[in-house]
Design goal:
The protein is an all-alpha fold and 91 residues long.
Length: 91
């Protein structure tokens, strides 16, 4: 019984690690896109100030959404680990 309990804990820990890594990579991607988008928006002299503010605000919203998704990713990782553990018990 202890072995299955340990494997469930291991599966949950692995799910959390995967969720954290996914969140970390998505955060890096959003930052990279954010930086490039802001540079492009500032570099375009023909655009109005309002367009630059709008683009910058959208990028900031995307960064905030990526932060919120860490909790969702962690919960999804735990759910998947629990399901994998449950299926392995049935086999």
């Amino acid at each position: 019984m202890a072995a299955t309990s340990d494997s469930r804990e291991d599966a949950c820990a692995m799910g959390k690690i995967l969720a954290d890594e996914t969140w970390s990579l998505s955060k890096k991607l959003v930052r990279n896109v954010s930086s490039k988008s802001k540079k492009l928006a500032k570099g375009a002299r023909s655009r109005s100030r309002e367009a630059i503010r709008s683009a910058s605000a959208k990028v900031d919203e995307a960064v905030a959404a990526a932060s919120d998704s860490r909790e969702d990713a962690s919960a999804a990782g735990k759910f998947l680990a629990d399901e994998a553990w449950s299926l392995s018990k049935k086999l």
